[in-house]
């Protein structure tokens, strides 16, 4: 099964099939408006603007599963992203991305790109690992999404190429994106 097998709901409530993105390089990212990583929207938008004409699509999936950091309605999320970060890439309806309620797309992504740990040489990686170890140790088990702004890079054929954790800055993905474009 590829990522193109799934059907999703946009932030405006429309049903779309992922196969409409065949032939594009994708970044699938779970997002939240009230997270310490929320400023990553800025660099995700920069990547989108830089590479969209070459075939990059960024698909944002707001989720309220991590510290209830996405509490608003879909319309609130959309307004927040546009007003504060100028987001023009596609956003989807609030989505569960981990545990038994995870959307099948995210179960597929985490199966294809297992969790390899945080880079604890970086302050944010050390901080998030420490926080989860202390407060939510079960989050570190298995391959599930660990926190907001986990990013999956997918090639034009729908293969998951690489997983970037919350603590990985979006611009650090540039060379990997360019190899696929």
From TrEMBL:
Source organism, top-level taxon: Bacteria
InterPro entries documented for this protein: Glutathione_peroxidase, GPX_AS, GPX_CS, Thioredoxin-like_sf, Thioredoxin_domain
Single GO term (MF): glutathione peroxidase activity
PANTHER family reported in the protein's UniProt record: GLUTATHIONE PEROXIDASE (PTHR11592)
Membership in a protein family: Belongs to the glutathione peroxidase family.
UniProt KW keywords: Oxidoreductase, Peroxidase
Protein name, per record: Glutathione peroxidase
PROSITE patterns per the UniProt record, alphabetical: GLUTATHIONE_PEROXID_1 (PS00460), GLUTATHIONE_PEROXID_2 (PS00763), GLUTATHIONE_PEROXID_3 (PS51355), THIOREDOXIN_2 (PS51352)
Keyword Oxidoreductase: yes
Annotated coiled-coil segments of the chain: none
Domain Thioredoxin: 1-181
Annotated source species: Paenibacillus harenae
Keyword match Transcription: no
């Amino acid at each position: 099964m590829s990522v193109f097998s799934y059907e999703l709901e946009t932030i405006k409530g429309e049903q779309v099939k992922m196969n409409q993105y065949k032939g594009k390089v994708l970044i699938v990212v779970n997002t939240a408006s009230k997270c310490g990583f929320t400023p990553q929207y800025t660099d995700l938008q920069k990547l989108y603007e830089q590479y969209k004409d070459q075939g990059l699509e960024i698909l944002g999936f707001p989720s309220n599963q991590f510290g209830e950091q996405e509490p608003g309605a879909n319309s609130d999320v959309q307004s927040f992203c546009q007003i504060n970060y100028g987001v023009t890439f596609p956003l989807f309806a609030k989505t569960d991305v981990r545990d038994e309620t995870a959307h099948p797309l995210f179960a597929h992504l985490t199966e294809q790109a297992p969790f390899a740990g945080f880079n604890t040489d970086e302050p944010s990686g050390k901080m998030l690992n420490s926080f989860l170890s202390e407060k939510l140790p079960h989050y570190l088990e298995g391959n599930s999404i660990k926190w907001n702004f986990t990013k999956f890079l997918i090639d034009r054929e729908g293969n998951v190429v690489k997983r970037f954790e919350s603590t990985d800055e979006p611009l650090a993905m540039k060379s990997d994106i360019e190899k696929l474009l």
